[in-house]
Amino acid sequence: MQLQDIWEKYPVYDDLVPTTRTKKEFKKLYKEIQQKLIELGEFPNKQARGLNRAVLEEIGEFPYWPKGGKNPVPLGEGEVHSMSAGEPRPESKRKPSQKAALDKRTKILNEADELMTAAGFESEVVEGKRLFSNQPRTGTTALDHVYETQEFGFDYNRLKEEYASGVIDDVKFKTRLDEIVSRKPGNIKTNLKLETEADNYAKMNRTRNVVKDKNLAELYKVRDADYTTKMNALLKSKNKTNQLNSIHQYAKQSLLAKQGNYASELVNTAAKAAKAGKTGKVIKTGIGLATLGSLAAIGPAGAALGAIDTAQRTNKYRQTGNRLDGIQAWLSGTSTATSATGIGEVVSMPLDITNLLIDAARYKRKGPIKGSRARFN
């Protein structure tokens, strides 16, 4: 890559040349200038916008070494690096890690928004997402999450892990879920606050410390052997991701039930599935994709095997003791009971579809769903 190409691709390095210093020398000089500019009052903190460029302009060079190397090399023999928290990182390594971090954050926010929607705050979530995405990306203030995404991600993931492993019961799971939801995580409007850039970065550092303290507290908390054994088994499980995804589905249904709109919401989901099936749309369920139309096409006759299905799921739960097997046995039993009442298919069919969605999240498959008790081969 020629120097002109580097300037065009990385505007922050415009008019600068590759460094002639070792990595250690460059880092030391970078931090000295950075600290000087902050002490002079030109920038409020290390994360301030424009500080990186100001430091590099004073050095007159940009970070450039072989990947994994520490000595300067001529242009064309090394790799452009970027400064991150005072540390130079090769671009070939930094970009994939940035994408992974962004994907993780997006997943956490999606789960938060889904929980708050299930809790009855859909309109506030939609409005908050609109405000957050439409805000100007320039200026000195920006909307920020009060209950930080990073902290929510830690809290909710820990809750899912402890429930999936069986170290907490259903009552404790729902109690802690309510506590998390009461803090209004995600993009819900009431969780957004206009912050200055300096306050935002200060809050980011505080949140990192909060999560760090929580991790340390978990690390040094006295646990009994049963807790440790069950948690280690979950953390080592190859199916951990699917299990946690299933717990998230259960958490949403629990919140829907508490709001009193459980049946209506599931009926709406089923209706959307039928409509989407005609257009060939699909939804993501766990690690695979299930055609929405295939769920609706099964209908109550195919999706509900009634007492037989309930007995099969109940027996499996007795054999495995797995929390998710117990949840699915309960869903099947509720479906069987309501099928014989005046409520009938209005409740039973959505419950069966919910069970199928949980199946989809738990079991690997290839191809479409073939039947109500079919697993994904």
Quaternary class: single chain
Instruction: Describe the global form.
Output: elongated
Mean pLDDT: 76
* Terminus-to-terminus distance: 48 Å
Structural class of the helix and strand makeup? mainly alpha
Q: Kindly estimate the percentage of residues that lie in beta strands according to DSSP.
A: 5-15%
Which stretches are poorly predicted, pLDDT < 50 over at least 5 residues? 261-267, 277-305, 336-349, 365-377
Compact summary:
Helices cover 64% and strands 9% of the residues.
Features:
377 residues, mainly alpha, 3 domains, two-stranded parallel sheet, 9 strands, elongated, disordered C terminus
Question: Could you describe the 3D structure shown?
Answer:
This protein has 377 residues and is mainly alpha-helical. The protein has 3 domains: 3-85, no CATH class; 102-236, no CATH class; 261-362, no CATH class. Helix content is 64%, strand content 9%. It has helices at 3-9, 23-39, 51-59, 91-118, 122-134, 149-165, 170-182, 197-220, 225-236, 240-259, 262-279, 292-303, 306-320, 323-339, 345-362; strands at 17-18, 61-62, 64-65, 79-84, 87-90, 141-145, 192-196, 282-285, 288-291. Strands 3-4-5 form a 3-stranded antiparallel sheet. Strands 1-2 form a two-stranded parallel ribbon. Strands 6-7 form a two-stranded antiparallel sheet. A hairpin with a 2-residue loop joins strand 4 (79-84) and strand 5 (87-90). Helix 2 (23-39) crosses helix 3 (51-59), helix 4 (91-118) packs antiparallel against helix 5 (122-134) and helix 4 crosses helix 6 (149-165). The chain is elongated, with a radius of gyration of 26 Å. The two termini are 48 Å apart.
